[in-house]
Amino acid sequence: MKKIGIVLLVIGIIGLAYFGYHAIQASESFSVLGVDIAVSQANWTPVIISGIVALAGLIMAIYQKR
After folding, report:
1. pLDDT of residue 52
2. Residues 40, 27: contact at Cβ < 8 Å?
3. Total domain count for the chain?
4. What mean pLDDT is predicted for residues 18-41?
5. Tell me, what's the pLDDT at 14?
């Protein structure tokens, strides 16, 4: 159980880094009346799922059967 938790934690962290970077990069900026406005068109669902997987892996890694 602990090994599966560590694997899920690592996969979740990698997913957070990868999808988070792409989500941050998916923004457009334009100028309206001299003010720059940035609009994000990112899909945040993979970032949220990666966070849930990482959290589940952390819980499984520290959980000990008694």
Report:
1. 97
2. yes
3. 1
4. 85
5. 97
State how beta strands 27-32 and 35-40 pair: antiparallel
pTM for the whole structure: 0.76
Burial 17-55 (b: 16+ CB within 10 A, else e): eebbeebeeeeeeeeeeeeeeeeeeeeeebbeebbebbe
- Its domain, for residue 44, covers 2-62
Q: Of 12, 46, 10, nearest to 26 (Cα)?
A: 46
* Contact residues for 44 (Cβ-Cβ < 8 A; gap 6+): 23
Mean pLDDT of all residues belonging to the chain: 89
* Cβ contact 66:14 at 8 Å: no
Query: CB–CB of 13/48 below 8 Å?
Result: no
Spatial separation of the C-alpha atoms in residues 53 and 7, rounded to whole Å: 10
